[in-house]
Automatic annotation (TrEMBL):
EC category: hydrolase
Species, as recorded: Oryza barthii
Keywords: Disulfide bond, Glycosidase, Hydrolase, Plant defense, Signal
Residue span, X8 domain: 300-384
Gene3D superfamilies in alphabetical order: 1.20.58.1040, Glycosidases
Name this polypeptide is given: glucan endo-1,3-beta-D-glucosidase
InterPro entries: GH (IPR017853), Glyco_hydro_17 (IPR000490), Glyco_hydro_17_plant (IPR044965), X8 (IPR012946)
Length: 425
């Protein structure tokens, strides 16, 4: 992987796995070997900028807690010897479980159980100009809160005036849980008399699929969270408590971990399946001007191929509503989405329902080549080839493009064409 990233310019963080931490933290020579084999051997071709020593060690690997700071120090000495200490910074990712009471952020403090180690850790970061690595996952806090915080707050969506969330000690308003987590970390460091250490978010995301008791883990929420997170980070606004400090952030994660133990949601944080097909599509561009109220800003649909023979579409439709177990109640005669003269629209409804119900477990959008993927359209992009309107009936509020000959529909209302033409899909 490090060789594949060579000469790309991409900034790379290399991790010391938890199961190697004891050896590295107990032996200066082992730490030096680790740096030589995993860092020095790939620089300068591969742009390694940070080393993450362990992952959530204090809360998940307490037996390794006492060697965390020695590991940091030994690795730093090895970087110094290799003359890489200015290019590569060392830190260790922590979860927000390290913070006893994260809200309100102004009174947040680290768990006193780890006070001695945290003091040494923060002193190391301060001395080496390294960031505090934070795994900020609003999904967990939202679920644990059991309704204390609204879902919109966790997903960066606009809150109702009656649901505004503020810190009573600072009168700062928080429009999202992510910012509150970051500010809680800054204030926890300040409570230990450390200021000026930047926070780097090393993991933040949302699961796209969960078990029966994990209702918040679904594709729509995952897509909304990560899309809004990208927009939030790229607008350079910082947080309410640290408005001038941009938070460098890594999305967790690229691939689903289908072999991971634990609840269903733990296996489904990726934006791609293990076979490298996409769970949903993200765009990593500056979207600061887009509307955060749109329930889903960008994604993938499974729609009927309008050029396929109607007999083949009918066969695929029967399979989707039968053995495929798609929910086809809305496209039955007499129901709101039934169109007796438009099998493409009816089949699109069934295909999309099947695809979104099953893709977390490997379901595809093929249907014997009678279906295709279409990218969802952002609301601010209102131009498509508009010759004859077509309205697709969907139960959720999404934007969909069927083909270059049809205008898009948003909330069931035809969108006014722009002068600028753009093609999607």
């Amino acid at each position: 992987m490090l060789s594949a990233l060579a000469n790309t310019g991409i900034e790379v963080v290399v991790g010391v796995p938890n199961d190697q931490l004891l050896r590295v933290g107990q032996s200066r020579s082992t730490a030096a070997d680790w740096i030589n084999k995993n860092v020095a051997a790939y620089i300068p071709a591969t742009n390694i900028t940070h080393i993450a020593v362990g992952n959530e060690v204090l809360t998940t690997e307490p037996n390794a807690a006492l060697v965390l700071v020695p590991a940091l120090q030994f690795l730093q000495s090895a970087l110094l010897a290799a003359n890489l200490n200015t290019q590569v910074k060392i830190s260790s990712p922590h979860s927000t479980d390290m913070i006893s009471k994260p809200f309100p952020p102004s009174t947040a403090t680290f768990n006193s159980t780890w006070s001695s180690i945290m003091l040494q850790y923060l002193q190391f970061l301060n001395n080496t100009a390294s960031p505090f690595m934070l795994n900020a996952q609003p999904y967990y806090d939202y679920v644990k809160g059991q309704g204390v915080f609204p879902l919109e707050y966790a997903l960066f969506r606009s809150l109702n005036p009656d649901s505004q969330i503020s810190d009573p000690n600072t009168n700062l308003f928080y429009t999202n849980m992510f910012d509150a987590m970051v500010d809680a970390t800054y204030n926890s460091m300040q409570a230990m008399n450390f200021t000026g250490i930047p926070v780097m978010v090393t993991a933040s995301g949302w699961p796209s699929h969960g078990g029966q008791n994990e209702k918040a883990a679904n594709v729509d929420n995952a897509l909304a969270y990560n899309t809004n997170l990208i927009r939030h980070v790229l607008n350079n606004s910082g947080t309410p408590g640290q408005p001038n400090n941009q938070v460098s952030t890594f999305i967790f994660e690229l691939f689903n971990e289908d072999l991971r133990a634990g609840p269903v949601s733990e296996k489904n944080w990726g934006i791609m399946f293990p076979n490298a097909t996409t769970v949903y599509s993200l765009t990593f561009e500056d979207m600061a001007t887009t509307n955060t109220d749109s329930p889903v800003l960008r994604g993938t649909f499974c729609v009927a191929n309008s050029s396929a023979p109607h007999s083949a579409l009918k066969q695929s439709l029967d399979w989707a509503c039968g053995p495929g177990s798609a929910n086809c109640s809305a496209i039955q005669p007499g129901q709101p989405c039934y169109k007796s003269d438009d099998i493409v629209a009816v089949a699109s409804y069934a295909f999309n329902d099947y695809y979104h119900r099953t893709r977390a477990s490997g379901g595809t959008c093929n249907f014997n080549s009678t279906a295709m993927h279409w990218l969802q359209w952002q609301q601010r992009w209102c131009g498509v080839w508009a010759r004859k309107p077509r309205q697709f009936c969907y139960t959720n509020s999404l934007v969909l493009v069927d083909s270059p000959n049809y205008i898009a529909v948003y909330h069931g209302v035809h969108v006014k064409p722009c002068k600028k033409m753009m093609r999607f899909g």
